[in-house]
Write a structure and sequence with these properties.
single chain, mainly alpha
């Protein structure tokens, strides 16, 4: 047997030998437990959402920064020439 099993067997043997005494709760125990339970702040129903909200925000921010980084040259360049070349009417009529 491993060390945990030996300790468990020893603990259970000692527990069996313990004298059986008064098993009632001490005076005022229920009142103290009720007061402690009611004084604890209630958990917000959004607590599970709040835990993942920051992670989602960080992921969305990372994706936005990556999208801007990959398209930065397209956003900063002068596209006047490209618009005229892509104009279908100008190409058909050859007005430019």
């Amino acid at each position: 047997m491993n060390k945990f099993d030996q300790q468990w067997q020893k603990l259970t043997a000692l527990a069996r030998q313990a004298p059986v005494g008064d098993t009632s709760a001490p005076y005022g125990f229920a009142t103290r437990m009720a007061a402690a339970g009611l004084s604890a702040p209630a958990e917000s129903p959004w607590a599970g959402f709040e835990r993942y909200a920051l992670r989602g925000l960080l992921a969305a921010t990372t994706l936005c920064v990556a999208a801007v980084a990959f398209n930065l040259s397209a956003m900063t360049g002068n596209h006047d020439d490209e618009v005229e070349l892509d104009d279908t009417v100008s190409q058909v009529l050859d007005l430019s």
